[in-house]
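Suppose a classmate hands you a notebook page containing two proteins, each written out with its sequence and a corresponding row of structure tokens. How would you begin to make sense of it? This section walks through that situation. The first entry is reproduced here exactly as it would appear on such a page.
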Amino acid sequence: MRHLLVPLAVVALAVGCTPDVAPTASPSVFVSPTASASPSVSPSPSPTAVESFPPAPATESAEQAAIRAAWMEYWRVYEKFAGDPSLTDLTETQQVTTGEAQNVILDAIGQLRDDNLAFLGGWQFRDIAIAEPAAAGAGEVTSKMTYCVDRSRMRIEDSETGTVSVQSLPSLAETAVMKQGKDGRWRLAERRNQEEAC
């Protein structure tokens, strides 16, 4: 399987898994916004707000709940900076990531800004499974998450024109590794995904 790096403008900020191969940068894939030139004759109702994250199951342990909260915080921070190019202090992105994920989030946000695009949300996560934390060697504790990313209603804005388009992209089956720091906080360490109906 090839190793891909895809900006989160299309919510594919991770790479496909290739066992025992170090991540390499691949050409980026972008979705250009398209504008509809025909005005609506009558006012349309506002779209219903869609919750990005499903509620946690009642059986989730306290540790799994902490991992879920850290993962959701990562996505909140990503959306904040991917959606507002005027924010220039990206320190917060480094507080919710560790390892390779620290560079990946910066690269994805930088690529969006280079292309004058802003990501305004519209994805949904489902089928979230969080493994109980386990020792990963060298005193590290990690937890593996699997989930589906529904990208059928992604909203992208052209930062120059203000035109917002809704993009419909294939779903992603994604795996994330969360790592607990020495401060006890969980952070995103890596993400891998592939297009797959899920």
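The notebook's second entry, a different protein, reads as follows.
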Amino acid sequence: MAMQNGSSQTPWVRHRRHSNEDVQEASKANETHLLVNDQNKYRSMLVRAYSSVWMIGGFALIIYMGHLYITAMIVVIQIFMARELFNLLRRAHVDRCLPGFRMLNWHFFFTAMLFVYGRILGQRLVNTVTSDKVLYQLVSKLIKYQMIACYSLYTAGFVWFILTLKKGMYKYQFGQYAWTHMILIVVFTQSAFTVANIFEGVFWFLLPATLIVINDIAAYFFGFFFGRTPLIKLSPKKTWEGFIGASFTTMISAFVLANIMGRFQWLTCPRKDLSTSWLQCDPGPLFRPEYYTVPKWFPEWFPWKEMAIMPVQWHALCLGLFASIIAPFGGFFASGFKRAFKIKVCNLKHS
């Protein structure tokens, strides 16, 4: 009986030990995941850091070169955005490709570009050529008739579209026509305001763009090291820890960077022409520091008894709040967009 009991208990003991080992291995696996010891993640982080350094360096060089070069960068980005969206539209209906419709898309694109930038940069172009009478008169007339030229080009595109209609494909072609206009609205609406802001002072372009970058980087690192709670199903890698940590980082950065950038005339002075010469101007009311006495309840070791704060720093807090709360939803929109069309990030980058 003793032997029978011993023999009957032995498998049970062995099974229990085996179960404990499985639990320990599972806990180790979870611990490894929580400590973020995955070498692939660190390799990905190094690649991102390396590419970010080059991108930030190139961006800083363009900022240094001035308003006109920044605008050129925006135009190039617009062209690539439109190209990607036009290609995506055709890939979704690859079996119904129409000859010549690609050229019609770009006709409407450059018509919209002439309309938008003609209105924003027209007077600045006139101010640039005032020294040459012949060129001044020519440019003035072109700007004068810019609206009728845009209307004529759009009308020509409309007639072109009507002439390409084919029996049995009317619904598809009108859908393509509507999508073309939606793409132009998406591409030009925000970028038009961006270019207008650039010529009111690079500050109003550089600070929001920098805050978006800071928010994205901070969200990545906070999520990488502390992320536990998923934020949204569209982006499983986004976490509440990353979102909250990035929000605090962005708000602090907005207040500090506004003070630093507001000291440089190259960033705060508006540009009235399309030249690349150096700028000098009196600082506007937003960039004149106001002095505040430090409250008595502050610790005695605090080094400043008076603090200089620019009014623009309070505006920067609003920009930081926008970059923290609203801007991440642009990434969520992109995630949903990619899933809707079943495309990958690499396709977006290389197409």
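A careful reader of the second entry would note: The chain has two domains: 67-201, 202-351.
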